[in-house]
Amino acid sequence: MKKATFKKHLLEFKQASGTSRGVLHTKETYFLEITEGEKKGIGECALFRGLSFEDIPEYEEMLQWLCDNINENKKILRKELLHFPSIWFGYEQAMLNLKHGEDLYFPSDFSEGYSSIKINGLIWMGDATFLQQQIEEKLDQGFDCLKLKIGVDWKAEKEIIKQLRAKFPKDELELRVDANGGFSVEEAKTVLQVLADLEIHSIEQPIKAGQISEMAELCKNSPTPIALDEELIGVLNFEDKKELLEKINPQFIILKPSLVGGFSGTDEWISFAESKKIGWWITSALESNIGLNAIAQYTFTKNAKIPQGLGTGGLFTNNILSRLVLHGDELMMR
Question: Is the pTM of this model over 0.90?
Fold first, then answer.
């Protein structure tokens, strides 16, 4: 018989981090532990306040329900947890860890330390000086793919991107931008042309999620490839996922396992995307090293051909110890 418990953990940022949800100083998360005899498995239910579909008062009640019903059939659990994607994700992690032991979720050359995952360097929101400082640091570290958060001050951000592109052509530095829905439809049309002139790889979520026909029109006519991100959050049914991609037909989708239903939910999105020749990459979402480790091990098994959006575990002062390390722009396990 399995037993399960959960505990809350408040991650503390080394420095305040600007996101589309405001400036963050802390990030709460939950650790789910499942035991069976002498074996133990741990997973992270990484609730993201203000962004997660399941950010509701009943969240901890549902975690307790899972612990009370941990021995139920997996299909029953998934049905009950459909609208709590991060809890389902924590369950998937804990069960895999229970099976493989130590800090393993998907044993592979990556988890053994023989292979790595190329990632993009994330440039956080902020003023021009802060953006320049981060860009210089990432370039010094050896990144040749940067993702810039934009939409705070487009005029200043545009100048920074222009200067960066003038210094580094497209074949030397790949640039991605993430607007987090920061532009109106009309603004987006202008921004998309500017980004195309600067040979930007892609833009994530140029307009707010939920504007399906408008997003479809942008994707159809945009000179810059568009990636859906927030648009995928809350789309949980198999048929709804398929319908969304058919309606919008984006160039890329961004997959955050904590927000889209764990490994199984991510697998569904990838399957639909590849059937329509839509590109994708996987991104972490401010998880602790427990969730990040599991996401990284999973990502390696998907044989991605382009830089992924994984974190490095270095944002928090009180993170969990991990074998994850960064060498240049390659994430590895030592």
Answer: yes
